[in-house]
Amino acid sequence: MAGSVLGEVFRISTWGESHGPGLGVVVDGCPAGISLAEEDIQFFLDRRKPGETKYSTPRREGDRVKILSGVFEGRTTGTPISLVVENTSQKSKDYSEIKDCYRPGHADYTFDAKYGFRDYRGGGRSSGRETIGRVAAGAIAMKILDLLGIRIRAYTKQIGPFVCRREFMDEGNIEKSPLRMPDLEVSAQAEEYLAKKMEEMDSVGGVVECVVSGMPAGIGEPVFGKLDAALAGNLFSIGAVKGVEIGAGFEVAQMTGSQNNDSFYMAADGSVKKYTNRAGGILGGISDGDDIVIRAAFKPTPSIFQKQNTVNCRGEDIEIQIKGRHDPVIMPRAVVVVEAMTALAAVDKLFVGMTSRMDLIQDFYRRRDCKKE
Amino acid sequence: MAGSVLGEVFRISTWGESHGPGLGVVVDGCPAGISLAEEDIQFFLDRRKPGETKYSTPRREGDRVKILSGVFEGRTTGTPISLVVENTSQKSKDYSEIKDCYRPGHADYTFDAKYGFRDYRGGGRSSGRETIGRVAAGAIAMKILDLLGIRIRAYTKQIGPFVCRREFMDEGNIEKSPLRMPDLEVSAQAEEYLAKKMEEMDSVGGVVECVVSGMPAGIGEPVFGKLDAALAGNLFSIGAVKGVEIGAGFEVAQMTGSQNNDSFYMAADGSVKKYTNRAGGILGGISDGDDIVIRAAFKPTPSIFQKQNTVNCRGEDIEIQIKGRHDPVIMPRAVVVVEAMTALAAVDKLFVGMTSRMDLIQDFYRRRDCKKE
Amino acid sequence: MAGSVLGEVFRISTWGESHGPGLGVVVDGCPAGISLAEEDIQFFLDRRKPGETKYSTPRREGDRVKILSGVFEGRTTGTPISLVVENTSQKSKDYSEIKDCYRPGHADYTFDAKYGFRDYRGGGRSSGRETIGRVAAGAIAMKILDLLGIRIRAYTKQIGPFVCRREFMDEGNIEKSPLRMPDLEVSAQAEEYLAKKMEEMDSVGGVVECVVSGMPAGIGEPVFGKLDAALAGNLFSIGAVKGVEIGAGFEVAQMTGSQNNDSFYMAADGSVKKYTNRAGGILGGISDGDDIVIRAAFKPTPSIFQKQNTVNCRGEDIEIQIKGRHDPVIMPRAVVVVEAMTALAAVDKLFVGMTSRMDLIQDFYRRRDCKKE
Amino acid sequence: MAGSVLGEVFRISTWGESHGPGLGVVVDGCPAGISLAEEDIQFFLDRRKPGETKYSTPRREGDRVKILSGVFEGRTTGTPISLVVENTSQKSKDYSEIKDCYRPGHADYTFDAKYGFRDYRGGGRSSGRETIGRVAAGAIAMKILDLLGIRIRAYTKQIGPFVCRREFMDEGNIEKSPLRMPDLEVSAQAEEYLAKKMEEMDSVGGVVECVVSGMPAGIGEPVFGKLDAALAGNLFSIGAVKGVEIGAGFEVAQMTGSQNNDSFYMAADGSVKKYTNRAGGILGGISDGDDIVIRAAFKPTPSIFQKQNTVNCRGEDIEIQIKGRHDPVIMPRAVVVVEAMTALAAVDKLFVGMTSRMDLIQDFYRRRDCKKE
Fold first, then answer.
1. B60-81 mean pLDDT
2. Using CB atoms, which residue from D77, D81, D114 is nearest to A118?
3. In the structure, how many helices (H) and strands (E) does chain C have?
4. Which of A361, A363, A367 to mutate to test the interface with C (most CBs of C within 10 A)?
5. Contacts of A372 in chain D (CB under 8 A)
6. What is the ipTM of this complex?
């Protein structure tokens, strides 16, 4: 309830600060029998790792993950999986000067207001490094989704005024763009824009889009446990997110019912399909079998190197000039966090959804008993 | 977990279908000693009640609430408060023809996919009437906030292309506008637009904005329990919401850090303030003492009276023409639901926040013991 | 968290006071497709109803249950089931004289210490009538267990010094004994003992035993989510329970490992069995396929008609003589509550247990998709 | 929900297997500002550590705890505290021979029934070493209780037929007895008895008693969230516990109301007291200000070195003779686990209890705002 436990069935507890000994996560509720190795998790951690391009903080961390429990002879055992990543490149002295002052756009002031004091080194718990535990747990969720035929892919849709064009987006381009923008022409323009802003010691915002494909219809709970509510809550829990939309999103405000409704039709394979997908794959909080499309707006990195007005914890107005190592744009790395948070919501709702029908429960226990003999 | 329980400390369980005997809610976790009468709750139910204007369904319901438990001699006792509203104006025959078919934009198909069958009368549990329980519980949350000096006010910010202008918005106008738009000139324009769309047997979308004032700094939990994540999850749980944004919202995508950061300064009263509020009152998931500003985009009512293509539950492509009683615009009534869901998140986080500091906990128990003697 | 919500997947919220308008429960998490009528629930409510024998309070309540939601055309829909029982026989004046004083053995003082005041009429929320919601929800859990081939049966094992003898216990006798003691000879002796104590204006304690048969092996979670921990927590939540034991229970303290261990053997049908069942059907918190045997010790009803020393809420030492309507023995009615609480724990753990193995989850979703077509 | 997360406000997630790289716990919900060092935790881990006396397994583990997060400059920060203990003395080959067979009294069979396979090394997750995470988290809970003036002390009350006599029990003796029995004469007799059973290659059971003093009246939630239900659930989650009782416990079955009721009186200091404490400090699930007295019955260690009948996972009847390192009596070490589980329940309920009265909540927020300035 204090905030670092997430999920109802597939439940994760993250921990760790930017400049403490390490960061990690405990996953309780992972089923037994899933093949899992450190490399499966490392793959995702490497994708979010800093220091890979000129657009991320030059802090270099190996971010090597270790599995401390819950896996035996290469398979999950059903017991909690503890994952740890050591911090190896902390430079605490970089932060000593901001110890007493509240950086604009950061959580320094609100942490002090809440807790009375804070671990000021590198943002402590409110650092972007906190997402390591999420990504590590998300990697396991991705494995589960893969076994159920479900795929998640996120990318940078927009940076500043530069928006990928649907018709020029190619998933194969995502990793070719240093900004993870699947429209390479727009990506190049965004790079120029970013270079200019970096020269001006400024940072930029943007939008990450995430698509879930292969989700069966009927997942998500009505009323408060809606799939979109879970996805939105999960994405809003990412540091810099200021908006989330699903399907047509905020455009629906300007549409009429006849424009926005997606008509159903019967597909050749006997399944129910929609001609369009303005719903973004979710109706009444429950998946409709279509792609789930969700977008999150990220604010520009608050750590900029320009002088800014602020106050210190002694109640004095001051000027501050932030030093240290900071990403001028976080979307390229946030893409991996968005995938993780989406995967965590999806797995949790898939697991919750197993008790919606009594006939399926009876069938489950009948077959489970047979399997054992 | 099945979706109809919300909250961690101030926990509500809603129940009821559009055409069942009634709807209601059980509130567990309401502190003892709050003055509470049925009229306190009725006030909010009346504001969301159908049949009040030409823009809402002509279904007329008294929507009279009864308190069945948890209140003794006019005060809450600390035990669960059960609230019930009877359905009195069901016309089930209106719906018999849609029994077997899936209305576009509705949850008919997804409920069938999830549960194998559904209570088709008036949308059953996915009806807008489901929000009665939320509004009733929200009324109690509003009472609690009031006792803590916190105020919540929502209004229609936008309908179709018509957006209230910040400088012409006056809270006193909200209830003067049949659309609950606080810019009366824009409201009049939106009414014309709406009239035209109603003639065309169509419906319209829009945006509701909600402002929380008086929230102390330091409320909300870091990482997953963020105040914005809770607010967003709560708003996304409202039927027609397709997007939620906080503060500058999606505009941050086009801003730079120097444009978006809110600088702090010391106010005359010794408190920390921000020159601007692009953050929307929340930094790092924790309230900063400023107004919390949140917006939700509502899709146009999916029930339109035009002919639409769809399928039935026998897997046939069909045409459907919806009858019955439906709002051509839901924002005016949704305003009350947005307030309720915001209040529920705020109270829950205020209660959760009481254990963030050991010195305050010690102080609490020291004083509690004294008070008793 | 405030205490009236129970369960993780099959989640119930009870509400109601002894002398309020009624009592009830909302069940969230009941699967769709279960045949359910008011009579199914009434059967259990009638078994716990007061006024049936000379050993229960002469307060006569019809205790008629109404289903207000979640059932459509005789089947559960998967949405919350709201059940209500009206109070019809309140005699509030009986209690006016105990308004200000703390009855020994009751929760009067502790409610005041917690909430600052209390609904003193008939014990308010701490009345035995509070169990109506439990029994109503338990009736639904019983239906689910029945569909999975699991059976629960409780009975009075002991009253005062009179203990049913294993070899003379016959399940068919339970309802033949007014004390629900399945050893009729012992039951007759206990009746004599009870009559004597009633003459002395006193009350008696006892033990209820409950047997769950047909539970598949492998149900329950390790560490904190143990099946026995859930059962014990549920039974300890019943008002008068002061002890709970499983299998050999407190006798294990005097046993050695060689005496207590149950040896396994292979049964003719290929299943794993134990020669004995001192474990009570649970090993390491997980069911072993054997009968689950659990016992709860009930204290004598604290409401006795003798004069007792106590204090009032003004801090004065006083003498009190309780009037009103009270059971001199509660085990016969508590039997039904024990069954309900056991059923609620069993269903919850069965539902939780559906995600323990990835191969079974994959199988579930594969088959679910096929079934729909 | 999968079992390794405990608590509602003070929430812990334990992880680790007997023969994996280590064990640990993440504590989410610990307030900021508590002085905390590794030694505070080490003190309790050393008390439960194996290898200290002839009555515990000769496996020698340093069991050194490391704090990986949540503490800054010697004080808790309010963010999750991650604690890790490395396994250093695993001897996995000892267990290879039991890989395929089900030890009587152990969870081998039930883990296989649940998960399809298991980490068989040293019992894996069902090993007694799993309690390391509990004790480490419990140490933090103990610190919190200490700051609130609450004290917890457990000891071995009974081993086999040897029961400490109330009048000869002295808390100062607990650590003087190798069995942690505070009646030294009885402790000596129990030692003789134990020596004899060890010669016979057998093990013994017993009872641990735990006393909580200084708990304010009014803690615990009515109905399901009762303090006794939480304590009982927590104690039943300890591996070998087969029974739990509070106050007079199972003796109440043989008592009458006039014998069992504790009469109230006004103490000189103006507080409400009871002449006796058969209630064990809890009435209606809520603390009454008196000592809370709770007992747990522990079964004899199932690992005995005699030959036993059992089956293997291929469905064959076999004989087994267990080797390895096992405690012939677990009560002396279990004492520390009982204290930890009691402390965890107590802290959680104290924190939950902070929202029971609106006047206290208003007072809290009023004072919190003042303190900040």
1. 94
2. D77
3. 8, 18
4. A361
5. 113
6. 0.96
